[in-house]
TrEMBL record:
Residue ranges occupied by any SnoaL-like domain in the UniProt entry: 12-113
Pfam families: SnoaL_2 (PF12680)
UniProt cross-references to InterPro entries, sorted A to Z: NTF2-like_dom_sf, SnoaL-like
Protein name: Nuclear transport factor 2 family protein
Coiled-coil annotated residue ranges, if any: none
Organism: Phyllobacterium phragmitis
Amino acid sequence: MTTESKVTRDIVERFHNAFEKHRPEDLDDLIGESCVLENTAPAPDGALYEGREACLAFWKKVASSANLAFTAEEISAMGDRGIIRWQLRWSEREADRIRGVNIMRVRDGKIVEGLGYVKGG
């Protein structure tokens, strides 16, 4: 694994852990000024957030939600791209979950792009 891939993986793992552990403050040092976020909803393209403050505010709101439980299925990195395959649950019922993926881009140790996708039915 290249040095760039190792840095990317570390940043992406730290990003995901903020959601699993409900620690929105852990996102503060991870998001770049020129960040762009494409959310998973609404279909078909998802809401677009541009700039550090907009992306950070959205992600912090999600990470602080106690009724959402994210679990990583796989985290990988190649160069400046990080991929998080995840599962999201909002109750104990089997039907109350979705699976998805975030494709991240890291530049200078900060997330500058987050593209979110979910499995649809």
